[in-house]
From TrEMBL:
Record-annotated NADPH-dependent reductive aminase-like C-terminal domain positions: 161-291
Entry keywords, A to Z: Oxidoreductase
Keyword Metal-binding included in the entry's annotation: no
Record bears the keyword Cell cycle: no
InterPro entries given in the database record: 6PGD_dom2, 6PGDH_NADP-bd, HIBADH-related, HIBADH-related_NP60_sf, NAD(P)-bd_dom_sf, RedAm-like_C
Domain of life: Bacteria
Protein name: NAD(P)-dependent oxidoreductase
Residue ranges occupied by any 6-phosphogluconate dehydrogenase NADP-binding domain in the UniProt entry: 6-156
The family this protein is said to belong to: Belongs to the HIBADH-related family.
A Pfam family hit: RedAm-like_C
């Protein structure tokens, strides 16, 4: 049996890779991009180049969108709303959760269904083992196109709220970026004393393993348990002690001539939690400040 066709709109690094993956899997693929020349390499590999957005929408029930933002979707399809009826728009572009919710209303207002998504790998890893995508919208709609979307990565349904997939996506990105940025700050700090990145690397791997361990000794597990239970355990390592330690990191960075804004932001967050009475509790009590920042 032939595979169901798919249309890809937006041929930046992500979209071009998605279209290539569909072609590699033998799936009939139509592409459209505002800069048509970007479609040429895919056309050479067998993709059908749509002349207009309306042609792109007409070619498939499932439309995978990968553009800079949601405004680009409106710019591309806003003049072709008559062609949206009966289409499923799987938009993997970035935006704010409320923006995605409004996009869901816009799509349904024109007879289309919107699946919002966040793809959790860089372009080269799309379609490889371990790739996964958060989706929200109607689960039955995702199920209807699961076979196609699985070619990009494991389709992970998170709920009907159109903004939820982006919340998952942004939570993961913030964890990823902040962790790697902290690592770079550590490299820079040690580098001022002549310590190489390779020398520091194995200690970072050891710390990461302890963070991720899914057992009593794992820090992420401990924070999760505290948040679920609503109890923050200070024990022998109170938040006050950690706030004082954060002061020292800022001072060490200043002495080394490094940028201090990242460590200072973390220090200030700790001290705000201490000032609100959480000094005798554990690190997990910082979530109370994150949840209810000072106005």
């Amino acid at each position: 049996m032939s595979k169901a066709p798919v249309t890809v709109i937006g041929l930046g690094p992500m979209g071009a890779r998605m279209a290539a993956v569909f072609l590699e899997n033998g799936r009939p693929t139509t592409v459209w991009n505002r800069t048509a020349s970007k479609a040429a390499p895919l056309a050479e590999r067998g993709a059908t180049l749509a002349a207009t957005p309306a042609d792109a929408l007409a070619a498939s029930e499932l439309i995978v969108i990968s553009q800079t933002d949601y405004k680009a979707m409106y710019d591309s399809l806003g003049g072709e709303t008559h062609a949206l009826k009966g289409r499923v728009l799987a938009n993997l572009s970035s935006g704010s959760p409320d923006e995605l919710r409004r996009a869901g209303e816009w799509a349904s207002g024109h007879g289309a269904e919107l699946l919002t998504g966040g793809i959790m790998v860089p372009p080269p890893a799309i379609g490889t083992p371990g790739s996964y995508v958060f989706y929200s919208g109607h689960e039955a709609t995702l199920d209807r196109h699961r076979e196609t979307l699985r070619e990009l990565g494991d389709p992970t349904f998170v709920g009907m709220d159109a903004g939820l997939s982006m919340l998952y996506y942004q939570a993961q990105l913030y964890l990823f970026w902040s962790t790697l940025t902290a690592y770079m700050h550590g490299l820079a700090l040690l580098g001022t004393a002549g310590v190489s990145a390779e020398r520091f690397h194995p200690f970072v791997i050891r710390s990461m393993a302890t963070l991720a361990e899914d057992g009593p000794a794992g820090y992420v597990r401990a924070i999760t348990d505290d948040v679920v239970s609503g109890r923050s355990r200070g024990d022998d390592n109170t938040l006050l002690m950690q706030a004082i330690g954060a002061d020292h990191i800022v001072e060490a960075s200043r002495e080394a001539g490094l940028d201090t804004e990242g460590p200072a932001a973390l220090r200030d967050l700790f001290w705000r939690a201490v000032d609100r009475g959480h000094g005798d509790e554990g690190l997990s009590s910082v979530i109370e400040v994150i949840r209810a920042p000072a106005r």
